[in-house]
Amino acid sequence: MERISLSGLTCSLTILFAVLLVKLRHNLLVLVRVVNECVKFLEQAYRDLTKVWHPDRFDDGDTRLRQKAEEQLKTINDAYARIQEAHLCINSR
After folding, report:
1. Quick check: 90 and 35 in contact, CB under 8 A?
2. What is the pTM of this model?
3. Largest CA distance in the chain
């Protein structure tokens, strides 16, 4: 019967654990990059939507359209604020 060296097993487990940590760190960095790219895309979409729905674009006297634009812009701003909060939470960890 072959004897297993405890020190050799400990060394192997330590190396395996270190490799797993390196892979986990790499995967987390990739995930953070993906999240940051998504946030950049959402920021551009936010800018585009604010240009489309800015109430100053509806100054032609139609108060109904201006009110609708104000409501839409408020919804857009609220959604963007939530996205920013979530992004700050992810990056602060």
Report:
1. yes
2. 0.67
3. 94
C-alpha 29: how far from chain center: 12
What contacts 32, CB < 8 A, 6 or more positions away?
90, 91
| Amino acid identity at 42 | L
Burial of 66 (0-12, 13-18, 19+ CB in 10 A): middle
Q: What is the pLDDT of residue 4?
A: 55
Residue 87 to residue 39: CA distance in whole angstroms: 8
